[in-house]
Amino acid sequence: MTHQKTDQEWRTVLSPEQFRVLRQKGTERPNTSEYNKHTDKGVYSCAACQTPLYTSSTKFNSGCGWPAFFDAIPGAVGRHADPDGHRIEIVCNACGGHLGHVFKGEGFPNPTDERHCVNGISLKFQPGDGEA
Length: 132
What we know:
Blueprint: H1 7-13, H2 16-22, E1 42-46, E2 52-55, E3 59-60, E4 68-69, E5 77-81, E6 88-92, E7 98-104, E8 114-118, E9 123-127
């Protein structure tokens, strides 16, 4: 990880809700993110460390209540099995911030058959051409 901080340092740069989700592995309520139905072209970066994570070209409407992507920018997002063994957590590789979970084999018509279900509060959008 290239962006390491103490909890106290993270608390000075993140809102209380961002800290709860990104650092304490919380989940925002469904259908509350400004990015859930967001369709502008650009790049979605980590709200904690500003590392580019996803492009708008991989975002799709899954109807799940959170922003969904079928792939991440190469090397940007890590995967870890949840302690319960049922889900795969996704994190920012640069700072370790919790993003959400990835689900496979749900049958969405995308090239990877994956759904990265991302807490919108973990993201920051930068308008542009949708490529990192």
